[in-house]
Specification:
Layout: H1 19-26, H2 94-104, H3 122-131, H4 139-151, H5 158-167, H6 203-206, H7 215-221, E1 225-228, E2 231-236, E3 239-242, E4 259-260, H8 268-281, H9 295-307, H10 318-323
Antiparallel strand pairs: 1-2, 2-3, 3-4
């Protein structure tokens, strides 16, 4: 059906144009004046939305630009078989003409079924950041990690151990209460943490209880009791123990507990001096090689035991002495 030309109205008279004329003006691009006496059949098809209202019978295109309408869903508001612009159904619509013009200008018009890509939200952005693989470690950090592992795997040089033992063949410790304070007798004392040391090699530490006896009792129970570094010790099955009460005038002990020396029954001060010298060679011990199992020596033993996967007893026990190559 042919549509009648739009009647031109004078802007100065302030009369309201017919509805079809307003439709034509709304279809004009912004910034360009409406051309007078233009048939509605030749007007651009895509109608822009003004304010919050749209032309009756038209639906907006999901995900497209503002106010752009889907030409296929437009229906005629004036006559059956014609679209909004008044053209018969089946003829090229003005919307198709506008899409062709936009393509020529380099603009892309998405099809009616196309949906705009979802915008990134803080939640999705955080998920992507979490899923991102961690950055590879720098060569410098890898070298530092390898150096730390190497430092914790320190082992003494066997030749150096034999050299130290030969140097201390005649070693004798001297009491130094000013530098290494003596411990006092406490019958209820227990070696701290020994209840958590598992294995038969730590049984003597778990069961140790300080006892005070006279000389006759010690000599009747043990065949070897000696004065070593200011105090008397008795030897029993590879360990030296303080002989509390053997001589009250000679009770200087830097450590109250068993000291493992092996089955050769070497004096405890000599074994302590060997351990101090080896730990000093490896950088664990910074004190004097005095043959006394004082606080500095026990700290060095703890560090060495921790670095080598041993139970941290802070004492000279069988696993530690074997690890040092002195068992």
């Amino acid at each position: 059906m042919a549509q009648q030309p739009v009647e031109q109205q004078s802007p100065s008279k302030g009369k309201r144009a017919p509805e079809k004329a307003r439709t034509t003006e709304a279809q004009q691009p912004k910034g360009k004046p409406a051309k007078p006496e233009t048939p509605a059949a030749k007007q651009p098809g895509a109608m822009k939305e003004r304010g919050a209202t749209t032309e009756r019978g038209a639906t907006t295109e999901p995900g497209a630009g503002k106010g752009r309408k889907t030409p296929a869903s437009q229906e005629s508001a004036t006559a059956p078989g014609a679209n909004v612009s008044g053209q018969p159904v089946g003829a090229p619509t003005p919307g198709a003409k506008q899409q062709a013009q936009e393509r020529r200008k380099g603009m892309k018009t998405p099809p009616p079924s196309a949906k705009a890509p979802p915008k990134a939200t803080p939640a999705t952005a955080g998920a992507k950041a979490t899923a991102a693989p961690p950055a590879p470690a720098s060569p410098a950090s890898q070298q530092n990690a390898q150096a730390n592992v190497g430092a914790k795997a320190k082992k003494p040089d066997p030749q150096k151990v034999q050299q130290i033992k030969s140097q201390h063949a005649n070693f004798r410790a001297q009491p130094k209460p000013q530098q290494v304070p003596a411990v006092t007798f406490n019958q209820s004392r227990r070696i701290e943490g020994s209840e958590r040391w598992e294995g038969p090699q730590y049984e003597v530490f778990r069961s140790y209880r300080p006892e005070r006896h006279d000389q006759g009792w010690y000599r009747s129970h043990y065949n070897r009791v000696e004065l070593i570094g200011g105090g008397y010790y008795f030897w029993n099955n590879g360990y030296w123990y303080p002989a509390w009460g053997y001589d009250p005038s000679a009770e200087y002990y830097a450590y109250d507990g068993p000291i493992y020396v092996g089955h050769r029954a070497e004096p405890p001060d000599k074994v302590i001096a060997n351990v101090q010298a080896v730990l000093q060679e490896m950088g664990y011990y910074r004190g004097e090689v005095d043959g006394l199992l004082g606080p500095l020596t026990r700290e060095a033993l703890t560090a060495y035991q921790a670095d080598n996967g041993l139970t941290t007893t802070a004492a000279i026990d069988q696993p530690t002495l074997d690890s040092l190559g002195m068992g």
